Amino acid sequence: MRVDQFDFSLPADRIASRPVSPRDAARLLHVTNDKFTDLKVHNLPDLLLDGDVLVFNDTRVIPARLFGKRGGADIELLLHRAESADIWQALARPAKRLKPNDIVTFSDSFSAEVLGRTDDGSVRLRFDLQPDALSAALQKHGHMPLPPYMGRDDDEQDREDYQTTYAAQDGAVAAPTAGLHFTPGLMDRLNAKGIATTFLTLHVGLGTFQPMKVDDTDDHVMHREWGHISEDVATFLTTAKHEGRRIVAVGTTSLRTLEAASTDDGTIRPFAAETDLFIVPGYRFKAVDVLMTNFHLPRSTLYMLVSAFAGTNRMKAAYSQAIDTGYRFYSYGDACLLDCADR
Question: Which of 19, 113, 155, 188 is the most buried (most CB within 10 A)?
């Protein structure tokens, strides 16, 4: 499938650099068949049915951008994949300066040794701290890894804004952005209406949000991301699915994890593994009935995913309306609520 089928023109002023406040005041485009309804995220409880199950990704974004020194040279690192508690893969700038056995120093008590490179050009690093100490050092010296399309450096406000209110499991280097819209008050209103909520984990990596660099989807290689669905959550979701209740994925990361863990009959299995599931039009969805998600990059795997979920023509029309009516795009932008075209 040609990637240029998923291209569109997006004015620069549609790219959100800050979220709205409060979070649930963001706009929500409700897409059903060929009808588009302009609402707000705080209207979500009125759009869902008694018995629906919302599935959230509880990953927590770590301050994964680091600035250090190799000798007298400035080095910028963006951690993107943990191999173990102390070994990470990172994008480096300038990468050519780093050789095996080099030491990158971030402070007097915080450094990393260069182990080598991966096939995709990432640098492998071994940090000199135990897990708890490494986490504390990242919180002190690291920066939030805002996507480059925001066109600015992070600041202290991003430590709160670029994190869901329910984040619990450290490991993501990009936020599960649909979840950024939820407030404790909205969660209370969902529960009061009888909407069940549950959590899985997918540690979001950089590959999720990057535009594709190939001309055909068959040539694209997805980055692998680690996900987890507990046995209790898998059993609960499978029971709900077999009872005819709708599974509502909050974000494409939740959707991809659920689909990776599902069998053809809708059974959702416990899951603790990496996934590189790449969803394009023609994919048959096994678990998810409704998707809440933000508005995504042209030519991105995420725009392909929503086109597969709700229908290519429907999403082209929805995105065109969103652009024409001033919706805000990307991580800090607005959201849409989509019904699966196959249901």
Answer: 19
